[in-house]
What we know:
With 330 residues, the chain is α/β, with parallel strands linked by helices. It contains 15 helices and 5 strands. The protein is elongated, with a radius of gyration of 30 Å.
Amino acid sequence: xxxxxxxxxxxxxxxxxxxxxxxxxxxxxxxxxxxxxxxxxxxxxxxxxxxxxxxxxxxxxxxxxxxxxxxxxxxxxxxxxxxxxxxxxxxxxxxxxxxxxxxxxxxxxxxxxxxxxxxxxxxxxxxxxxxxxxxxxxxxxxxxxxxxxxxxxxxxxxxxxxxxxxxxxxxxxxxxxxxxxxxxxxxxxxxxxxxxxxxxxxxxxxxxxxxxxxxxxxxxxxxxxxxxxxxxxxxxxxxxxxxxxxxxxxxxxxxxxxxxxxxxxxxxxxxxxxxxxxxxxxxxxxxxxxxxxxxxxxxxxxxxxxxxxxxxxxxxxxxxxxxxxxxxxx
Length: 330
């Protein structure tokens, strides 16, 4: 989903904004659940269409068959309730209604003697059922028993929004990414991925002091989450790099003395915070090739620290880890 059409689009949670004001416009009002349900979830059937509508359809998903008649009072009580529950089930089951006055043979074959009667079909055969105008709660329990419990759509929605936010920040759009992360935090204030993403956005927008303040105010358990710890380490690297001098001057030092490992280590740290991960890794790998004892194998330790921030799936991590292995085990 895009940032413009998802329900979590909004402003930052105030606990993470610092002095900035981020976020996009709120999403338009979402449609009700029934607006998203296909019309064919509930249909009338006939004797001729029963094979198609029930037996064949039940091979794809459970089908509830409601046997009813126009003169049946309890049938009229059950109809709006079961239709409501089926729609709320959002596709986990279908409901097929059969008027036994017009089509008595199927009910007769199934031995139905009292209506309303609801029979569940799975894989072309009846597996369970109930009779009478039962309460809504019992219908929900019946559907859960037949089709399994409903998925946690809220959790799935948050995961989708987090993916959208990460795509935005990876594309350099930290401001809109922050809007998504902030909205997730409003729904789930201790979501570690959203906290880490929000701080990542602050860093990208130059709000280093605000990012540090946000980190310092986190509960210990949340601060220890891997995603939050990684962005905290990234902030450490940025703050350290500010003290390392001019990268152009360090390049000149290396041109004069390629074995100036101290200059090369500083340059690796600077290239890392600039976002040139390949160059950062190459400088550290070069130190390792030439002098593993430098600063007690400090280049390797620094590279592992980079990996923690970049993440195991980052292409730069994968490429550098491969080269690191060849150095360590050659």
